[in-house]
Specification:
By secondary structure, this protein is mainly alpha-helical. Helix content is 69%, strand content 0%.
C-alpha cells in the first residue's frame, strides 16, 4: 500500500507568488501544444490517410480531451507545484512519483533542446551562418539565457511573455483558416474508401504527440491564484481550442493545396497559393513565434517540475530555493536551463527523442491511474474532494487510461527500449541521489 498521508507542504511553497489566472494557464497549454510541428503536420497526416485526415485529427483531439479531462479531475484536488508528480505521489507513493517526476522533467529538457534547434533552423533560412559553428552556439546560449532570465524575474513577467507569444502564434493560424477556408475545393475534402488500419494507427500515434503538451498546465499550479478551478478550466479550454484549430487547418490545407502530401511547408505553400507571397511570409513569422512560445513554455514547466521534486525532498533541496526578491525557483530555473543548453549545443537531445516520446505516455498513464486510485473511499481522508469531475463516473478516466496504454503499446521497439532506459536511469537516480534527501 502506498504512503497515504500526504506530505506536508515545505516552507518554500509559500514563497512562490500566486499570479497566474486561468487564461494564463491556458496560454501555457496552447504554447506547449502548438509548436513548430503544426506548420508541417497537415502534409504528414495527409500523406498517411488523405481526405480522412480531418476526421482523424478531430477524433484524436477528442481522445486527448478525455485524457485532459482526467488530468482536470485529479488536478482539481491539488494546489501545489508539480502536477502529475504530486498526483502519483499521493496515489502510489514516492518511488512511482519520482519516476513520473523524472520523466516529466526529462521530457521538458529534451524538448526544449530540440525545439530551440528547430528555431535556429528557421532563423537559418534567412541567416544561414547562424546554423553552424560559434554563431549557432552563441545564439542558442543567448536564447536560453534570455528565457531563463525572464523566468527568474517573476511569474507575472513570464505570463506576459507566454500570453503575448500565444496570441502571436494564434493570429497567423487564424488568418490562414480565414484565408483558405473560402477557397477550399469540396471534392478534395470528401473522404473516399477508408485507409488501411496500419495507416490509421500510424496517424493516430503521430497526432497524439502533435496534441501533446497540455500535461504541463497543472505543473505551475503552485503559482496560480485559484489552481483547483483554474487548472481544470485551462486543460479543457486548451484541448477545445487546439482541436478546433487543428481540424480547421487540416481542412483548409487539404482543400486548397493539391499536392499537400508532398509539401514540406504546407501552410506557407497553401497561403501563397491562396493569398500570395505576403501570406506565406506571415506563416513563416508565425512558425518562428510558435517555436519561441514553445521554448518559453518548456523553460517555465521544466523548471517547476524540477522544483517540485526538490520541494518534496526527492532531489537536493538546494534546487527548491525560492528567490526572496522575485518569488521564483531560481536554482531550478538555472539548472534546467543549463542542462537544456548542453543538450541543445551537443545534439544529445536527438538520442533522447525516442525516450521522451515514451516518457510523455508514462506521465499520461500515471496521471490517469492516479485519478482512478484517488477516487477510492480510503483516500477520502487524505486528499481533498475534486472540484471538477467528468460525467459518467469512472468511465472517462478508465477510457483515458486505456487510450494512454494503447498508444504506449503502439510505440516502436526503439521508443520502448529508450523509454525503459530512461525509467531505469530514474530508478538509479532515486536510489543514489534521492534517498539521502528524503524526508520522513
Amino acid at each position: 500500500m502506498p504512503d497515504l498521508p500526504p506530505p506536508p507542504a515545505p516552507p518554500s511553497s509559500s514563497a512562490l507568488r500566486r499570479e497566474l489566472g486561468r487564461w494564463d494557464l491556458t496560454a501555457i497549454g496552447i504554447n506547449q501544444v502548438i509548436g513548430a510541428a503544426v506548420f508541417a503536420m497537415p502534409a504528414a497526416v495527409a500523406a498517411l490517410v488523405g481526405a480522412w485526415s480531418p476526421i482523424l485529427v478531430a477524433l484524436v483531439g477528442l481522445a486527448s480531451l478525455l485524457i485532459a479531462a482526467t488530468f482536470a479531475e485529479v488536478g482539481s484536488r491539488f494546489d501545489g507545484t508539480g502536477g502529475p508528480y504530486l498526483y502519483t505521489r499521493a496515489a502510489f507513493g514516492r518511488f512511482v512519483a519520482f519516476e513520473v517526476g523524472w520523466m516529466q522533467w526529462f521530457t521538458r529538457v529534451a524538448s526544449w533542446a530540440s525545439v530551440i534547434n528547430v528555431l535556429i533552423v528557421s532563423l537559418g533560412f534567412y541567416w544561414p551562418s547562424l546554423t553552424t559553428g560559434g554563431a549557432r552556439v552563441a545564439v542558442i546560449a543567448a536564447l536560453i539565457a534570455a528565457l531563463a532570465a525572464i523566468n527568474v524575474l517573476g511569474i507575472k513577467q513570464s505570463a506576459w511573455v507566454v500570453n503575448t507569444l500565444a496570441i502571436g502564434k494564434l493570429v497567423p493560424l487564424l488568418l490562414f483558416v480565414a484565408w483558405a477556408l473560402p477557397a477550399v475545393d469540396p471534392s478534395r475534402v470528401l473522404p473516399g474508401a477508408a485507409p488501411e488500419w496500419s495507416s490509421i494507427s500510424r496517424t493516430a500515434l503521430l497526432l497524439i504527440f502533435a496534441f501533446g503538451g497540455y500535461e504541463v498546465v497543472p505543473v505551475p499550479a503552485g503559482e496560480a491564484k485559484d489552481p483547483r478551478r483554474a487548472v481544470p478550466f485551462a486543460l479543457i479550454m486548451t484541448l477545445v481550442i487546439v482541436t478546433a484549430l487543428f481540424t480547421l487547418i487540416q481542412i483548409a490545407a487539404l482543400g486548397t493545396l493539391p499536392d499537400l502530401a508532398a509539401s514540406t511547408t504546407p501552410l506557407a505553400d497553401a497561403s501563397a497559393r491562396v493569398m500570395g507571397g505576403a501570406a506565406a511570409l506571415v506563416m513563416t513569422i508565425g512558425a518562428v513565434l510558435s517555436t519561441t512560445g514553445n521554448n518559453m513554455g518548456q523553460a517555465l514547466s521544466g523548471s517547476r517540475s524540477l522544483f517540485a521534486l526538490a520541494e518534496h525532498g526527492d532531489v537536493p533541496r538546494l534546487l527548491a530555493r525560492v528567490s526572496a526578491r522575485f518569488g521564483t525557483p531560481v536554482n531550478a530555473i538555472l539548472a534546467t536551463a543549463a542542462v537544456s543548453l548542453v543538450l541543445a549545443i551537443t545534439g544529445t537531445f536527438v538520442t533522447m527523442a525516442a525516450a521522451s516520446a515514451v516518457s510523455r505516455l508514462v506521465v499520461y498513464a500515471g496521471t490517469c491511474a492516479a485519478a482512478l486510485q484517488l477516487r477510492r473511499p480510503r483516500y477520502a481522508a487524505h486528499v481533498v474532494a475534486a472540484t471538477f469531475s467528468p460525467p459518467f463516473g469512472p468511465v472517462v478516466p478508465s477510457a483515458a487510461l486505456v487510450i494512454a496504454l494503447g498508444i504506449l503499446a503502439g510505440a516502436t521497439a526503439r521508443q520502448l527500449l529508450a523509454g525503459a532506459g530512461a525509467l531505469a536511469a530514474g530508478a538509479v537516480l532515486y536510489l543514489i541521489a534521492a534517498r539521502p534527501w528524503r524526508t520522513a
